[in-house]
Specification:
Structural class: alpha/beta
Bound molecules: ligand C2E, magnesium ion
CATH superfamily of the largest domain: EAL domain
Strand content: 15-25%
Strand order of the largest sheet: 8-9-11-12-13-14-15-16
Number of strands: 16
C-alpha cells in the first residue's frame, strides 16, 4: 500500500510504500524508534502504539483517533533558507505540537514534513476537529530562525478507530485521505474522515476503475478548441481538451478525471493516448496550424516527461515547431528545477511553452522571471470580468504590456462575446479562444472547419461567421 500519493504534493522520495519504509528503518538499524532530527518517535513507534491500542480496544467500545499533518510549503522554505533552517523549523514544530497535545498522545515524525499522532482519548469526530483547530492555531505564531522569522501553516487529517478501520494500515490510509482533502481545501485546513468522505471515496474508486478501463480501451477522446488571431480572426491553432463519456457516469469533465488519473498513477498512459490521437488529427490540418496540449502537474515532477513527449512527436513524424505545451504555474511549484529542465528540453527542439491560467497562481511574476516561456495565457476569470469592472481592464492591460516588454506572446481564454474580443484587441492582446469563436469540438467537426467557405475563398478560417462560433453551440 502506498501511503503518500503524489496528489498530496509530497516529495518524490516520500512516495514510498509504508511497509518498505518500515523495513528500511529496521535495516538501517533505527531500532531506537526515534527520529534523529526532532527526537520524536518515528513511524514504527506510531504503528506500535496504535496497534497496542487496537488490541486493547478490541473488547472496549471506546474509539480513539489517529492524525497526520503536513507543513504547508515546507520545501520552498527548506530550499530558500537551507537544510539547517528546515531542521530547526521541524524541531520547533515538534516542541510546540507536543506541548499542545494531551499527555497520553503520541507525536511522531513520519518523513520530511509529515507528522503522525495517536490520540487515545480523542473519541469523536468533533474532538478530532477541535484538536486539529487548536494545532492549526499553534502554527500561527512565527518561527524564529535567529536571523529571520518565518510564518508556516499545516494541514491536518484525522480518523477514528474503529469507524475508519480496524488495522493500522487501514487507519493510516483513511487519515491520509482526510489529509489529502484538507490540502485540497487550501493551507491550514483540518479534515476528519466522515461518512460523507467514505461515500465520496467509494464514488471516486468507482470512477477510477471506470477511467482505468476507458483508458485501456482507448476511449478518452481528443476535442479541439480554436485559437484565433484576434485582429484578423484567423485560426492559428487548436487546444486539445480531453473528453470522456462513461456509459453510467455520463460526460465527466477533465477537471474531475485528470486529477484521478494523476493520483492513481496512470496520467502518463492517458496523456500518451491523447497526445497520439491529437497529433494524428493535427497531421490532417494545414501545416501552419499548431496544436496546443496541456501537461498535468504530476508530469512536471517527472524528469522523463520531455523525453516521452519528444519520442511521441518523433515517432509520429510531426513537426515539433507546430506544438505548444500548456503548463500552469501551480504545476511547476512542487519541483521547479525539474519543471525548468522539462521546459528547456522541449523548447530546445522548437516546441513553444505556454503558461496557462495566468494570474490565478501564487507568484505569477516570479515564474516569468525564473522560467523561459514563449507565451502567457490570461486566465478566463479576468476576461469574464471585462464586462463588469474597470479593474479587470487595467489588469489585462498591465499583463499585455508586461508580456510585450518581456517579448512574450499573449493570449486570452474564455472569450464569450464580440465585446470581449473587441476589448482585447483594444488592449493589445494578440490571440484568443473562447465560446465566441468556437466550443471544443471532436476531430471530425474540427477537420470540417477547414472546408468552410471562408477558407476556400480567403485562405483562412473565420470563426465568427456561424451563429455559435465555428464549432457550433
Ligand atoms: P484549460 O487548459 O484552461 O482549458 C480551458 C477550459 O476552458 C476548457 O475547459 C474549455 O472548455 C473552457 N472554455 C473554453 N472557452 C470557454 C469560454 O468561452 N467560457 C468558459 N466559461 N469556458 C471556456 P475543460 O475542457 O473543461 O478543461 C478544464 C481543464 O482541464 C483545462 O483547463 C485543463 O487544465 C484540464 N485539461 C483538459 N484537457 C486536458 C488534458 O488533455 N490534459 C491535462 N493534463 N489537462 C487537461
Ligand atoms: Mg489549457
Ligand atoms: Mg486555461
Amino acid at each position: 500500500m502506498t501511503y503518500s500519493g503524489s496528489g498530496l504534493g509530497l516529495l518524490s522520495d516520500e512516495r514510498i510504500d509504508i511497509s518498505e519504509r518500515l523495513i528500511r528503518s529496521e535495516e538501517d538499524g533505527l531500532k531506537s524508534l526515534t527520529d534523529p532530527v526532532t527526537g520524536l518517535g518515528n513511524l514504527r513507534r506510531m504503528k506500535t502504539k496504535a496497534e497496542k491500542l487496537i488490541e486493547q480496544r478490541a473488547d472496549d467500545p471506546a474509539p480513539f483517533s489517529l492524525g497526520l499533518f503536513n507543513i504547508d510549503r515546507f520545501r520552498p522554505v527548506n530550499d530558500l533558507f537551507g537544510r539547517k533552517a528546515g531542521d530547526e523549523i521541524l524541531s520547533q514544530v515538534a516542541l510546540r505540537i507536543s506541548a499542545a497535545l494531551p499527555e497520553d498522545a503520541l507525536l511522531s515524525r513520519i518523513s520530511g514534513d509529515m507528522f503522525g499522532m495517536v490520540l487515545p482519548t480523542c473519541f469523536f469526530e468533533k474532538d478530532a476537529d477541535r484538536v486539529g483547530n487548536l494545532l492549526r492555531d499553534v502554527f500561527t505564531a512565527p518561527f524564529d530562525l535567529g536571523e529571520r522569522i518565518v510564518r508556516m501553516s499545516a494541514s491536518f487529517g484525522f480518523c477514528q478507530h474503529p469507524f475508519a478501520g480496524t488495522t493500522f494500515d487501514e487507519l493510516y490510509d483513511k487519515c491520509e485521505s482526510a489529509l489529502y482533502q484538507a490540502r485540497e481545501s487550501g493551507p491550514g485546513s483540518v479534515r476528519v474522515y466522515t461518512h460523507q468522505m467514505a461515500r465520496e471515496m467509494r464514488q471516486r474508486t468507482q470512477m477510477e476503475q471506470a477511467l482505468r478501463k476507458a483508458v485501456a480501451a482507448r476511449e478518452i477522446e481528443a476535442h479541439f478548441q480554436p485559437i484565433v488571431h484576434l485582429q484578423s480572426k484567423k485560426v492559428t491553432g487548436f487546444e486539445c481538451l480531453a473528453r470522456w463519456t462513461d456509459a453510467e457516469l455520463g460526460d465527466v469533465p477533465p477537471s474531475d478525471f485528470i486529477p484521478i488519473a494523476e493520483q492513481a498513477g496512470f496520467i502518463d498512459t492517458l496523456t500518451k493516448l491523447l497526445f497520439e490521437k491529437a497529433i494524428r488529427c493535427a497531421k490532417e490540418w494545414p501545416e501552419d496550424t499548431f496544436l496546443s496540449f496541456n501537461l498535468s502537474s504530476v508530469q512536471l515532477i517527472d524528469p522523463t516527461t520531455a523525453f516521452a513527449v519528444l519520442s511521441m512527436v518523433q515517432k509520429m513524424d510531426f513537426d515539433p515547431r507546430r506544438i505548444e505545451i500548456e503548463i500552469t504555474e501551480t504545476a511547476m511549484m512542487s519541483d521547479p528545477r525539474t519543471a525548468a529542465m522539462i521546459i528547456n528540453e522541449m523548447r530546445a527542439v522548437g516546441m513553444r511553452v505556454l503558461l496557462d491560467d495566468f494570474g490565478t497562481g501564487q507568484s505569477s511574476l516570479g515564474r516569468l522571471r525564473d522560467f523561459t516561456f514563449d507565451k502567457v495565457k490570461i486566465d478566463r476569470s479576468f476576461i469574464a470580468a471585462l464586462d463588469e469592472t474597470d479593474e479587470a481592464n487595467h489588469i489585462v492591460r498591465a499583463i499585455v504590456n508586461m508580456c510585450q516588454a518581456l517579448h512574450l506572446s499573449v493570449i486570452a481564454e474564455g472569450i464569450e462575446t464580440a465585446a470581449h474580443a473587441a476589448k482585447l484587441v483594444e488592449l493589445g492582446c494578440e490571440e484568443g479562444q473562447g465560446y465566441y469563436f468556437g466550443r471544443p469540438a471532436n476531430a471530425q467537426e474540427t477537420l470540417a472547419l477547414f472546408s468552410q467557405e471562408s477558407v476556400l475563398r480567403d485562405g483562412y478560417l473565420d470563426c465568427t461567421t456561424t451563429a455559435n462560433g465555428c464549432c457550433g453551440g
